[in-house]
């Protein structure tokens, strides 16, 4: 893609407050999930996105409703930012019939066909081939849609990653590869997994436009994603964004997090994307304390309601256990 | 007098690994997060500190590469123990396991052998949904050239690894994730453990319950439950899933004249199907009732607790099947 044609416009100011609200909404949702997990209301694996919210919010900001999104097992932030209703996500965490996957997927497998949210995939790198296929189908049908795919730095070690970047570049498919480089794949640091740790450089070797982005700065992410999406949509071929970020919490609720030193975590927390944007908005007189507590209140209300609805929602009948194993056919 | 000590399944696997690393310097471990992290199920915790990064090798997320590398290292005389986090992720290494490990000895006319051990967890029951819960060991048991074992007891978890390492062929060890916290008393002086034979875990006269791995405990509990109603069930733990120990199975069925196979895999094309077929082939005229199977319902494993429970073989399902075979026939 030619970057001169697609210079980003400044993100309008009202969007900045909205981006803050969206990040806060994900943060508060997940804090509540952690509590509900301790209370055994949510079970299975739970992977929190705390610290990485700017990535999901910034990227989805650049997508249009028609575009597709493929996610990982760390998918709450992606789903919420994409517009999957919070009550449907919470109900899914509860394993209820009203959940966005009817209780069959849980935290790691949120889906929403209406939002073109192709789901949380719990096999590392397993979503990349899907995104290539979504894009291929669009091209073959003459549709100008973008398929965005989130995956972690750990996925870069899998064969599927390399096969997909090559295929997408070879066929010039409209895929936006969004690598959430949080420096760790479970307990394995990036420099213990990769001989070359510059992931954007790696991607460019396949013939993709690629560049690193400060994933702790939602404005930077939104701008980069917007530029990338414009190119991809215009038919310039796939694009790769390396979103440099950090997870503040352990890999999952099972992880004792023995492999990172506390100082490193603290250093990254200084760059909290939510605090950063809030401070910036305040400094520019764009956000008052009242406005912020208004946002917090709105989120709390939505969250309380989502939890209340999940608590009382029905579960799928056991008789329906084998429903959806195959497509339901008209009789 | 032998001294004894209480050991968990997890500790037993760890001790087996430590023991193998100490006994044979060709042994090394390789897998994702086995070193610094200590293993996703904390099995290898502490081994990196004890044996160093040369022999406790953390790998990137590259199942095909490191499983294949294990095959290569075994070809040149090493004794690799490769850990795959769960059988679900082993699908990314399926090509290496099936097309290389299982074929090279034969395809080369016997020029090569592959003394490789691959360990992985299997099974459901913890609400991890459809990409973390499947029991695919039956698939591997389909493949000539592989040996497949499933330690269901702490003693087997402790003993099978060394025997597997001494075997010249690739051995896959399936550890059901629900077993790691189970505990038992082990003798201080351990006898060698074979990986060829099934074991009768409960002797009985009225019906044979054949199972392995994660469903052994449920089968034993079911046997106790029916015992209260006067049905004396024999429970067989297969231990080896390939090759199968037909002799132990048939010997039991010929005595009890009834069989129930319990398998956490899906029914279609399953180990349970294979065992059931062998019983009809080899002991048909000894049967007093059709063989029953208790398997996982044919659906990807769902997240919701009540659905997952309903999908998996439960004690009550085993009891019901035992009652049916005992009521049926003469
Ligand atoms: C193929 C495969 N291998 C191993 C795992 C176990 N596992 C789940 S998440 C994870 C780490 C992935 O790290 P990364 O891709 O960086 O994503 P992050 O968790 O940091 O968001 C591992 C090893 C898996 N789910 N799939
Ligand atoms: Mg990562």
From TrEMBL, chain B:
Q: Give, as one word, the top-level EC class.
A: oxidoreductase
Which cofactor names does the annotation list?
A: thiamine diphosphate
Assigned keywords, A-Z: Oxidoreductase, Pyruvate, Thiamine pyrophosphate
Q: Does the keyword Nuclease apply?
A: no
Under Gene3D superfamilies, the record lists: 3.40.50.920, 3.40.50.970
* Residue ranges constituting the Transketolase-like pyrimidine-binding domain according to the UniProt record: 7-182
* Xref: InterPro entries: THDP-binding (IPR029061), Transketo_C/PFOR_II (IPR009014), Transketolase-like_Pyr-bd (IPR005475), Transketolase_C (IPR033248)
* Enzyme Commission code(s) on record: 1.2.4.1
Protein name listed in UniProt = Pyruvate dehydrogenase E1 component beta subunit
């Amino acid at each position: 893609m030619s970057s001169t044609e697609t210079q980003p416009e400044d993100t309008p100011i009202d969007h900045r407050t909205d981006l803050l609200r969206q990040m806060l909404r994900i943060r508060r949702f997940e804090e509540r999930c952690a509590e509900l997990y301790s209370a055994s209301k949510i079970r299975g694996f739970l992977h929190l996105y705390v610290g990485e919210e700017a990535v999901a919010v910034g990227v989805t900001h650049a997508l249009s409703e028609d575009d597709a999104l493929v996610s990982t097992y760390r998918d709450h932030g992606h789903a919420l930012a994409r517009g999957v209703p919070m009550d449907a996500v919470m109900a899914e965490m509860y394993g209820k019939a009203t959940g966005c996957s009817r209780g069959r997927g849980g935290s790691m497998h949120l889906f929403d066909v209406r939002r073109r949210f192709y789901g949380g995939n719990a096999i590392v790198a397993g979503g990349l081939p899907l995104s290539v296929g979504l894009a291929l189908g669009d091209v073959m049908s003459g549709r100008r849609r973008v398929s965005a795919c989130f995956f972690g730095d750990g996925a870069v070690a899998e064969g599927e990653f390399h096969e997909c970047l090559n295929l997408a570049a070879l066929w010039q498919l409209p895929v936006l590869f969004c690598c959430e480089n949080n420096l760790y794949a479970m307990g394995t640091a990036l420099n213990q997994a990769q001989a070359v740790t510059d992931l954007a450089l790696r991607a460019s070797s396949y013939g993709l436009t690629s560049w690193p982005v400060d994933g702790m700065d939602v404005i930077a992410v939104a701008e980069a994603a917007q530029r990338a999406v414009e190119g991809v949509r215009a038919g310039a071929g796939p694009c790769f964004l390396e979103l440099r970020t950090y997870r503040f919490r352990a890999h999952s609720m099972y992880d004792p997090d023995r492999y990172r030193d506390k100082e490193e975590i603290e250093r990254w927390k200084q760059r909290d994307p939510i605090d950063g944007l809030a401070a910036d908005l305040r400094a520019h007189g764009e956000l008052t304390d009242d406005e912020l507590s208004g946002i917090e209140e709105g989120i709390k209300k939505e969250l309380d309601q989502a939890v209340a609805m999940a608590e009382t929602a029905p579960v799928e009948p056991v008789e329906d256990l084998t429903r959806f194993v195959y497509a339901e056919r008209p009789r | 007098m032998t001294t004894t000590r209480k050991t968990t399944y997890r500790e037993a696997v760890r001790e087996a690994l430590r023991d193998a690393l100490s006994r044979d310097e060709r042994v090394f471990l390789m897998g994702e997060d086995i070193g610094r992290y200590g293993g996703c199920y904390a099995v290898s915790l502490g081994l990196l500190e004890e044996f160093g990064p040369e022999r406790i090798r953390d790998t990137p997320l590259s199942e095909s590469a490191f499983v294949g590398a294990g095959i290569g290292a075994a070809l040149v005389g090493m004794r690799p123990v490769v850990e795959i986090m769960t059988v679900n992720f082993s699908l990314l290494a399926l090509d290496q396991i099936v097309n290389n490990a299982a074929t090279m000895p034969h395809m080369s006319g016997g020029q090569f052998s592959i003394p490789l051990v691959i360990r992985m967890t299997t099974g459901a029951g913890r609400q991890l949904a459809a990409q973390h819960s499947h029991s695919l060991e039956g698939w591997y048991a389909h493949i000539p050239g592989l040996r497949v074992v499933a330690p269901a007891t702490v003693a087997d978890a402790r003993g099978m690894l060394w025997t597997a390492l001494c075997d010249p062929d690739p051995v896959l060890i399936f550890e059901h994730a629900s077993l790691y916290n189970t505990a038992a008393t082990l003798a201080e002086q351990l006898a060698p453990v074979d990986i060829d034979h099934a074991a009768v875990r409960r002797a009985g006269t009225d019906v044979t319950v054949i199972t392995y791995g994660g469903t052994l405990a449920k089968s034993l509990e079911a046997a106790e439950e029916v015992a209260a109603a006067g049905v004396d069930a024999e429970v067989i733990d297969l231990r080896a899933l390939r090759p199968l120990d037909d002799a132990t199975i048939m010997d039991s069925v010929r005595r009890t004249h009834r069989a129930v196979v319990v398998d956490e895999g899906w029914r279609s094309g399953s180990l349970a199907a294979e065992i059931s077929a062998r019983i009809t082939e080899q002991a048909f005229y000894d049967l007093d009732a059709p063989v029953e199977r208790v398997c996982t319902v044919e659906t990807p494993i769902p997240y919701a607790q009540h659905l997952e429970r309903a999908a998996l073989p439960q004690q009550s399902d085993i009891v019901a099947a035992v009652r049916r075979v005992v009521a049926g026939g003469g």
